[in-house]
């Protein structure tokens, strides 16, 4: 029964990516851990593959419509890809199985990654819930691109490290960065973000430690359901304003983040 809920949730991951361009990948690890009983460390690796493949499929329509800025994807994507790869290859394997003790409570590697993930979910939820103060001018006015290379480099490294640690695509971090730092229109920022997420997630997955046992069947099934969801989300985006659904999804992510913290600290 939990697997059925897992596949339904996988479709929702894709719908979110297709409809609002971000947010969906933040659910991948909780779905794998709590509905498919995958170990948290392995789940962050599975998530890279699932999110990367789903984002790659989702970016195709944006690419055909000319809504992917290749130069921006390269400038932002290269430091992200390097950071994800190095994080999965060296930082994650270096984290000890038991990080520290707090009385009778033992913070294991899995618990630490889940708590980091929950914190990221809360930050992501806030970015989706808060009112959008822009009046659409970013989407409608073409602005000459000027790259602030040092800031983009730092942002790319941070997003890449976050992705490497917890397996989330980080669209809620990438899209605002592309709009504010690269002066991209919103729709182009979403398309470019999907390309960056696909590249850094899939290439970062290649840096995964050989110690991680891969359940390709589970990864394949979840990926297929998520890809089906992204087609549904892309179709719905023509009929529904994703901005109106974004806060609702944000509240759901917030509740999930709080649940993970409570479960891993108070109920474990």
Radius of gyration computed on alpha carbons: 18 Å
Main sheet record? 2 strands, antiparallel
Q: Alpha-carbon distance between the termini?
A: 23 Å
What is the strand tally?
2
Give the class from helix and strand content and strand pairing: mainly alpha
* String of helices and strands: HHHHEEHHHHHHH
Helicity range: over 70%
Number of domains: 1
Shape: globular
Strand content: under 5%
Any low-confidence stretches, pLDDT <50, length ≥5?
135-142
Our count of helices gives 11
How do the strands line up in the largest sheet?
A: 1-2
What average pLDDT do the residues reach? Answer: 82
Describe the structure.
The protein contains eleven helices and two strands, in the order ααααββααααααα. The chain is mainly alpha-helical. It has one domain. Strands 1-2 form a two-stranded antiparallel sheet. A hairpin with a 2-residue loop joins strand 1 and strand 2 (105-108). Helix 4 packs across helix 7 and helix 4 (70-94) packs parallel to helix 9. The longest helix is centred in the first third of the chain and has 25 residues, at 40-64. The protein starts with a helix and ends with a helix.
Task: State the main characteristics.
single chain; 268 residues; mainly alpha; two-stranded antiparallel ribbon; 2 strands; 73% helix; globular
